[in-house]
UniProtKB/TrEMBL annotation:
The chain crosses the membrane at residues 6-24. Keywords: FAD, Flavoprotein, Membrane, NADP, Oxidoreductase, Transmembrane, Transmembrane helix. It comes from Calidithermus terrae. SUPFAM superfamilies: FAD/NAD(P)-binding domain (SSF51905). FAD binds at residues 33, 41, 46, 86, 120, 286, 327. This is Ferredoxin--NADP reductase. Its cofactor is FAD. Homodimer. PANTHER family: THIOREDOXIN REDUCTASE 1-RELATED-RELATED.
């Protein structure tokens, strides 16, 4: 089995940038993630939203930022192990052995945990037909706006994603939003825009309404919704149901790796080197906790570069921690040999 110098757990922005920096040190790197594609929260939850606080980019779509990170990392030929969740960690002869949900074991000299908010899954409504039609008209994210063009779309939820996509789809689709409460959790400005759109007949907003059933044949054809105050039921013809009711996340197995934790979702880093309480294991991005921490992508990038350089020096003690300036390198970095 191919051993890599460093293994990064989590292919979100922090993990991708950490892997890039490991590559810059001419070391080999594996990236593990249970999701089918890299990008973490950005691809899973908001690929088509603009991000405005990435240094050097006045604005950038979340999916474009991920594509750029993947492209920046590509010259180093990282080993992507997608669709597998890191579950078990053992130390054997100075190496770490990581066993995944698929039963595979990967060997590595140092570990960087960039697991974000943990392996996450969208919160389900739990109504009849929801599971049956998932992938056949029931969605938990808008990955491509084009997919909804010209369709009758029911959006379920009252937070930022539900409000953003009610506005985001209104110009290309026939949108109805239902929310189980009268009050929305989304930003006030977005809620006001949404209400204005409803007053202009550009979207329909129904509160306090809930989803009772999804029906169809090969695909979703209609839903039953109900007013939870009056219990009155309505049958509506729809082509797509987009459930944006937040997501559940848990660190799961990583929380049992004997690392010092902050609550049950964050891993404590002991100092500015991003080391955790277990030598050879570093953390960065949303999962890493320290005094003054802010869960922002821009900070995750900084933490990733620190974690990667210390992890590189841990895996190869002959390396200096300080990488020097990238501008002094050749223009096209060459991949490190696999060993
Ligand atoms: C709607 C929305 C809008 C946002 N807008 C902004 C913004 O404008 N600016 C900003 O700075 N931030 C924003 N954020 C926050 C930002 O997305 C996060 O700070 C960022 O994604 C954290 O990156 P990360 O790499 O640490 O973790 P994540 O993006 O969460 O990625 C972690 C990855 O680790 C994987 N993982 C978890 N457990 C395991 C395991 N056991 N084994 C293997 N892999 C595992 C997960 O599957 C995931 O892919 C927003 C978040 C949301 C939800």
């Amino acid at each position: 089995m191919l051993r890599t110098d460093v293994t990064v757990i989590g292919a979100g922005p922090a993990g991708l940038f950490a892997a890039f920096y490991v590559g810059m040190r001419d070391l080999t790197v594996r990236i593990l993630d249970p999701l089918p594609e890299p990008g973490g929260q950005l691809m899973a939850l908001y690929p088509e939203k603009y991000i405005y606080d990435i240094a050097g980019f006045p604005k950038i779509l979340a999916k474009d930022l991920v594509n750029n990170l993947v492209e920046q990392l590509e010259p180093f030929k990282p080993v992507y192990t997608l669709g597998e969740r890191a579950e078990k960690l053992e130390e054997v002869d100075g190496d770490f052995h990581i066993t995944t949900s698929s039963g595979n074991t990967y060997v590595t000299g140092a570990v960087i945990i960039a697991a974000g908010v943990g392996a996450f899954e969208p919160r389900k409504v739990g109504c009849a037909g929801e599971a049956e039609f998932t992938g056949r008209g029931v969605y938990y994210a808008v990955k491509s706006k084009a997919e909804f063009a010209g369709k009758r779309v029911l959006i379920v939820g009252g937070g930022d994603s539900a409000a953003d996509w009610t506005l985001g789809l209104k110009d290309i689709a026939d949108v109805t939003l239902i929310h189980r409460r009268e009050q929305f959790r989304a930003h006030a400005a977005t809620v006001n825009q949404m209400i204005a759109a409803a007053e202009a007949d550009e979207v329909r907003i129904l509160t306090p309404y809930e989803l009772k059933e999804v029906r169809g044949d090969e695909r979703v054809r209609e839903v039953v919704i109900f007013n939870n105050a009056t219990k009155e039921e309505t049958v509506m013809g729809v082509d797509a149901v987009v459930i944006l009711a937040g997501y559940l996340s848990k660190l799961g197995p990583l929380a049992t790796w004997g690392l010092e934790m902050e609550g049950n979702k964050k891993i404590k880093v002991l100092d500015g080197t991003m080391r955790t309480s277990r030598p050879g294991i570093f953390a960065c991005g949303d999962v890493a906790s320290y005094a003054g921490k802010l869960p922002l992508i821009c900070l995750g990038f900084g933490e990733a570069s620190i974690a990667a350089n210390y992890a590189a020096a841990y895996a190869h003690p002959e390396l200096k921690v300080n990488p020097g300036h990238s501008s002094e390198r050749d223009e096209s970095p060459t991949p490190a040999p696999a060993h």
